[in-house]
Every structure is written in structure tokens, then in C-alpha cells.
Design goal:
This protein is of the alpha/beta class. The protein has helices at residues 12-26, 50-61, 82-91, 106-111, 131-145, 164-175, 205-209, 223-226, 233-240, 244-247, 270-273, 280-300, and strands at residues 39-44, 65-70, 94-101, 119-125, 153-157, 180-184, 200-202, 214-217, 255-257. Bound molecules: phosphoric acid mono(formamide)ester.
Length: 301
């Protein structure tokens, strides 16, 4: 595809090719002039630490000119729309846009208005998709467990309903043929649409953990308390917090993942987040390589 808006529908061959290329980048094999003369802008209308910084680093490592758009100090504060903002940056010669927006479908909508040579990457839209997070998560799993996902039991835990990360991870895990995908969380935080098709769904975290090879924790979005979907942080931690004692139910060599930012002491304890089974900072490191692979594929063809 010309843009990367979602992992939904991306063929296994294309997904695996990106992962193989990302692995080469992770090992330091890259051409610092690959995107020479190409301007890339990180266009974020929502906060970010990992995604925005790693895209900037990825573009810089490939030799692109990198612009960082900060909505809070931009003319969007004077009422300029996201589309007008993009079209003005496009007029300056920017060819690649990495876009995060709070509305579902916002990046796809922008893609309908860009010039023929312009490329968009979805860096997270609403609760819909975060495709490069899905990619970096698969790269991390692949490094830890090998390229054959067919025997893997993977558990995704927490606020799946509002999570674009979970949607992209689920799509990628299905495409790569994961052996068993389990999903666990309180009923109020589980989606009721087709998102969980084919997954083993449970509200019992202890039971869901039995024998899994990877536990992918999700951030409890604190605003869910205002919506009444979570009663208290203490209750959430008691029922869905990953502790060292709980983790012992998983396979002995199970890995723990979390997209960040983490709520320490809520969905995960310090002991687990910083422990030997945690790949949380490996995920972050892989984010640069995965994003290099995406920028190269879209901007060099
Ligand atoms: N995982 C992730 O998307 O983090 P940021 O919101 O900090 O980019």
C-alpha cells in the first residue's frame, strides 16, 4: 500500500518482509543516505513520547530532513484544521507525514486529500489502529520466540475496548498465525464487536495466564474511571494487575510486554515491569527499527 493506515488486510508476506527488514535495521545494517533529500514531519495532535521520538530518530538515521510539528505551539491553536496544516507542510515539500490524532479514521480521511507523491503513516488514531506499535510488538516477539508463531500462546490483558494497540496487535497476531490468542479484562473494558473474533476471552486473569508464552499488558486509561467503567485502581490491580506471583502461572520462559506508558502499581508491578521477563524497553528499542522499515518501504518504494 501507498500509506500505512492499519495492519488489517496487510498480507502475511508484506508483514513478514517489514519484520525481516526491521530486524536488519535493529542489527545496525542501514544506509544513512537512504532518505537523503526527503522531508518527513511528525504531525501529532495527541501527546506521545515513544512513537514521536522513535519516528524522528528512524527518519534521521535514514538521512531524511525531519520536522517536528507540535500542536500546542502551532496555528491549530488559532483554529487551523488538521487538513490545512498538512496541506501547508506539503506545500513546503514535506513528503512523509507520521500522524497521530484522537479521532477514529482521521488519518485515513487526511490520506484522501494529499498529493500523489505524499505518504502517510498512522501513528495512532482514536481507538482504531496503531500499526507501527503492532509491528514493533511482533518484531519483539519474533526475536524472543522465533519466526514461527503457530505454537505461541499469547495473552492480551486490560482495556482492550479502547485500545488501538490491542487492535493492531490482534490483527498482526492473526496474520502471523499465532497458535492461541487469549484476551482478558473486566467485561466493561472488552469490546463487543468483531475485534475479539477467534480469541479465547476470559475475565479470570489467573486462569488466562496458565501456560502462556507472552503476556501483553495494556495501559489502564485512567479516564475510564470517570466513565464508571473501572471502580477503583485498587480493585483493578487486585483483579488485573500483573504481579510476580501471578506471572508464575505463565510458562517459565514467558515474556512480558507493555506498549507504554505504564501505570506502575496499577496494571503491572515494578517487580515485573523491571524484572528479567520484561521486554518493555526492548519494545521501545525495536520501535526505531520497525519505523525505519516502514519509512523506507513507503518513501523509497
Ligand atoms: N506506545 C506508545 O504509543 O507510546 P506513546 O503514546 O508515548 O507514543
Amino acid at each position: 500500500p501507498r500509506h500505512l493506515l492499519t495492519l488489517d488486510g496487510l498480507p502475511e508476506t508484506a508483514l513478514s518482509a517489514l519484520l525481516i527488514r526491521a530486524q536488519a535495521f535493529a542489527e545496525g545494517h542501514y544506509d544513512r543516505r537512504a532518505l537523503d533529500g526527503i522531508a518527513v514531519c511528525t504531525l501529532f495532535f495527541e501527546p506521545s513520547t515513544r512513537t514521536r521520538m522513535s519516528f524522528q530518530l528512524a527518519a534521521q538515521r535514514l538521512g531524511a530532513d525531519v520536522l517536528n510539528f507540535d500542536a500546542s505551539t502551532s496555528s491549530t491553536r488559532k483554529g487551523e484544521t488538521a487538513l490545512d496544516t498538512l496541506k501547508n507542510l506539503e506545500a513546503m515539500g514535506v513528503r512523509g507525514f507520521v500522524v497521530r490524532h484522537h479521532e477514529d479514521g482521521a488519518v485515513a480521511a487526511l490520506a484522501g486529500h494529499v498529493n500523489p507523491g505524499t505518504v502517510l503513516v498512522n501513528a495512532g488514531d482514536g481507538r482504531s489502529a496503531h500499526p507501527t506499535q503492532g509491528l514493533l510488538d511482533m518484531l519483539t516477539l519474533r526475536q524472543a520466540k522465533g519466526a514461527d508463531f503457530s505454537r505461541l500462546k499469547v495473552l492480551i490483558v486490560g482495556d482492550v475496548r479502547h485500545s488501538r494497540v490491542a487492535r493492531s496487535d490482534l490483527q498482526a497476531l492473526r496474520t502471523l498465525g499465532a497458535g492461541e490468542i487469549r484476551v482478558c479484562g473486566p467485561a466493561a473494558l472488552l469490546p463487543t464487536d468483531a475485534t475479539l473474533q477467534g480469541c479465547v476471552v476470559s475475565q479470570d486473569f489467573d486462569a488466562a495466564l496458565e501456560g502462556v508464552d507472552a503476556v501483553m499488558m495494556l495501559r489502564l486509561q485512567r479516564e475510564r474511571m470517570d466513565e464508571g467503567l473501572v471502580t477503583s485502581l485498587d480493585d483493578y490491580h487486585r483483579d488485573y494487575g500483573l504481579t510476580a506471583a501471578r506471572l508464575r502461572r505463565a510458562a517459565a520462559d514467558a515474556v512480558v510486554m507493555h506498549p507504554g506508558p505504564i501505570n506502575r502499581g496499577v496494571e503491572i508491578t515494578d517487580e515485573v515491569a523491571d524484572g528479567p521477563q520484561s521486554l518493555i524497553l526492548t519494545q521501545v528499542r525495536n520501535g526505531v527499527a520497525a519505523r525505519m522499515a516502514v519509512l523506507e518501504a513507503l518513501l523509497r518504494g
